Amino acid sequence: MSSFPKSTVLGYPRIGPRRELKRALESYWGGRSPRVELDRVGAELRALTWRRLAELGLEGLPSNTFSLYDQVLDTAVLLGAVPARYRDAEDPYFAMARGTEGLAPLRMTKWFDTNYHYIVPEIGPDTVFKLDASKPLGEVREARGLGHETRPVVVGPVTFLLLGSALDRLGDVLGCYEELLTALAAEGVAWVQFDEPALVGDRTPEELAAVRTAYERLGAVSGRPSLFVASYFGDLGESLPVLAGTPVEAIGIDLVRGSAPVADLTGKTVVAGVVSGRDVWRTSPGRALAALGAVRASRVVVSTSCSLLHVPYTIDDEPSLEPALRGRLAFAEEKVAEVVALAGADFRGSVPAGPSVALPGPVTFDERGPYEVRAAAQAAHLRLPALPTTTIGSFPQTGELRAARAAVASGALSQTGYERRVEEEIERVIRVQERLGLDVLVHGEPERNDMVQYFAEHLDGFAVTRNGWVQSYGSRCTRPPILHGDVSRPEPITVRWATYAQSLTDKPVKGMLTGPVTIVAWSFVRDDLPLRDVVFQVAAAVREEVRDLESAGVSIIQVDEPALRELLPLRRAAQADYLEWAVAAYRRATSGAADRTQIHTHLCYSDADQILAAIDGLDADVTTIESARSGARILSEVSSFGRGLGPGVYDIHSPRVPGAAEVEGLLRRTVGVLPVERVWVNPDCGLKTRTYEEVEASLANVVEATRRVRAELQA
Ligand SMILES: Nc1nc2c(c(=O)[nH]1)N[C@@H](CNc1ccc(C(=O)N[C@@H](CCC(=O)N[C@@H](CCC(=O)N[C@@H](CCC(=O)O)C(=O)O)C(=O)O)C(=O)O)cc1)CN2
Ligand SMILES: [Zn+2]
């Protein structure tokens, strides 16, 4: 058995330093380039990654970390878990990821507590697992052709099945994993990495037994490669002794989120994640060496805390960042260099650092009146019809708008010219909504590159990047802002666009803000303050914006919190505390509004179930949530809120235009469950990724469906 190389990373970005993969994918999907071109770009990106990692001196190179869409979807394909309805599609892989005309895609949801989304495996009792190892084998061979020996990375059986809610199929799936090990051994592969992030969550005794069964069976495969089970995003807790009791040779432990295990792991290799894959800060050598020194194992390998998928490629691509800040930063390439440097240091006998102390957060206090009082004041002021229709905020982000922003950055377009362009777009959005007959209008958010980055650009304490793209799902990326100092709002941010929009119409226009939890969740955040203190600073800035919008005459203000669920700690023991301060921060941001100002909030993930009480606690006058795909279940659960509710009447993630009858059906179901006077009618989420053609057709049907249901109410 070969020993584990002394330095490694658990995974690497794959979208390309200039988003080459995004462009190749979108060009292929749009029919503008052939499949061979997409495959050529993929091969080039893989070669670039291996070459770079080797140049930086990393010894243990991973493979199969590339993906054309998502590594969980790749695992489903590896195991043959392709639902029958996709098998005849022209391209089953992308059909599962994105759907086709007439075929809805598989569900997509957040990867643990990150802003990365994976495709949820659909596994039923009839799923026939059958190994197709062409991708991992292909990457191993491809790397070898380039002179690199690699360690293929595959989502492990327990995590894969838990994500697919099908742990009962363990016995069947293990057959495929056994075959995979045999195939990799035949290829001369020395080590294989199974990612098991699900093991850092609370696991039942049955689930722990599944871990034991899985790795005992895989450990018994004769002639197999050495097994490395990687955990990340937290502590293994009760899963660690279970794993340690199986024949796996190496265990990956997140020493940034988690702490060094007290257990003696003699006999095992520990792949110690001391360089964070979740932030962009340089690693403190003292802290890292102390963490490494505290591990008791036969061999300690230096690694990242998780895949580097969640950070941008390199700070070399950010020449305009302030030098003082730059010096504190490490993106993927710089983190690899840190791993290599730490692996070259002698860390035995280093002393553990003292634990950091959390400060108590500010308490909430409410100035707003009780809901009944607010609702009456708002009704008198707004005079809305029953079943008011509205949208979630953004309208299509056209290529023209993006190009205009790029032109400002390059100096080809003046700031005034750009602002005029934004105003034209706002006017277009207002006219479209008036023509459609919507009741509560939005300005469409054309001035925003992103609902978080835009605010970061206008707040002190944040820096933004030029090329710091991180994959969010498929070809979609974000540039998470860097929250590095105390946050404050030098001047109003959205007021001029909101008042401009309101000046064009007699219908109420909603002001549109992003909430403090979401701004922080979708940024890279300083680590010298407790997260909640940072969130409260952002809440104070949002609160000022709410007040200024109100003073400018805006009578409905929406404060979005789509990431409220995402930051929920993976362990139940920590959840109540998080939810308490997150809700308090939201109320801090919104409770400066007068009773007659209507506060809306928006959340758009189907797995809201676990945080319903917290959503209720936000105390928003109106809550719009995703529901078109999750169905009636969510309706009955939110019916107890006792305030306004807008369960989405159609899914905006697909280009499909819902028929009026279909929307009418959903709406009838909604008013069957919720008191009609509290129901709002809206799509599931913002419309920025759609085209005007799709949006106008869909919204026309929403308005028509609402008209039909209203007519009956009056009858
Ligand atoms: N931060 C964040 N997280 C989120 C969401 C969100 O809206 N924001 N929504 C959920 C789903 N996730 C999403 C993530 C990204 C996108 C998305 O559409 N991203 C855009 C980029 C948005 C952006 O930053 N746009 C910039 C830059 C656009 C650009 O590509 N510009 C060109 C130049 C312009 C041109 O000529 O086209 C370039 O830089 O090369 C702008 O509009 O200004 C993309 O990948 O295409 C959508 C949803 C959950 N997480
Ligand atoms: Zn949304």
Folded structure, characterized:
Pathway: Amino-acid biosynthesis; L-methionine biosynthesis via de novo pathway; L-methionine from L-homocysteine (MetE route): step 1/1. It comes from Nonomuraea insulae. GO terms for molecular function: 5-methyltetrahydropteroyltriglutamate-homocysteine S-methyltransferase activity. Its cofactor is Zn(2+). The chain is α/β, with parallel strands linked by helices. It folds into two domains: 20-343, TIM Barrel (Alpha-Beta Barrel); 371-714, TIM Barrel. It contains 24 helices and 19 strands. The strands form five sheets. The chain has a seven-stranded parallel β-sheet. Strand 5 (191-195), helix 8 and strand 6 (226-230) form a beta-alpha-beta unit. Helix 14 runs antiparallel to helix 15 and helix 19 (531-551) runs parallel beside helix 20 (575-590). The structure holds ligand 39S and zinc ion (ZN). The ligand Nc1nc2c(c(=O)[nH]1)N[C@@H](CNc1ccc(C(=O)N[C@@H](CCC(=O)N[C@@H](CCC(=O)N[C@@H](CCC(=O)O)C(=O)O)C(=O)O)C(=O)O)cc1)CN2 binds next to helix 14 and strand 12.
